[in-house]
Design brief:
By secondary structure, the protein is an alpha+beta fold. The chain has eight helices and eight strands. A six-stranded mixed β-sheet has the order 2-1-8-7-4-3. It has a two-stranded antiparallel ribbon with strand order 5-6. A hairpin with a 5-residue loop joins strand 7 and strand 8. The longest helix has 18 residues. The N and C termini lie far apart (36 Å).
Length: 258
Amino acid sequence: LAKELNVKDQGPLSEESSGKPYGEVIRDYEAVPGVQWRFGKPNYARVNKLYFEHRSKVHAEGSLEAVVNKLVKNWEVESHHIADPRQWKTMDTSKFWASVNGGTAADAQTMADVGPYNMLLGDTASYTGSDLSFEESNSIFGSTFADGYAFEVLEVLSGPPTVTFKWRHFGKFSGVFTDSHGTKHQGNGEILNLFGLCIAKVSDSLIIESLEVYYSPEGLLRPLVQAAGDSDVPSDEGDVRTAARKEQGPEAAAKQEA
């Protein structure tokens, strides 16, 4: 959690952040020399524990699923914890753009400024990303999922250079979620699941050039504001918006921004 980090604590990630104590390296990120961590060096021990206890897939070492799973986890390190895109390694920042459900594309600097939560969730009835800073959004979800919010690749449908994969996010709603109206919603410790699909364009060396994410933001938010057992959010991959549309390139992204 960002609030537990010390900005004075810099340097390389620890071995426990890699997952090695569990017998599997799921994150092998090596920052550039002199990296400046946004909140201080992140520690993934807690979310790794959640991941290994509650993941639904165990991918064979070296499989495409295992490679993509690790790539996304390394991307998360940068997008959440390194403020300066010039220090990013997983993305080609000269080309990078990301979009959600075919919406307006965000470039690397925009994502660094607003943060992944605000970029991916946008504005909804219970969450207004346009009104929140990077730090505020991190604080909200750090308080919501006190044990972390884990990610796993479920299945890779196509390999490089256009990597299409199904994914699952999951976490224990053991904290408090504060909605856009300031109302606080206490969790009951239930594991909440979120499913989606991503189309990632990558280079020959697996550097990410673009991300098209398809999912329902309400699939995350609605369970947080409803009483336990009163959620009508689908809990399977049927909640994913179909990606069976013509793939967007940078030209289409530019048109969306106009």
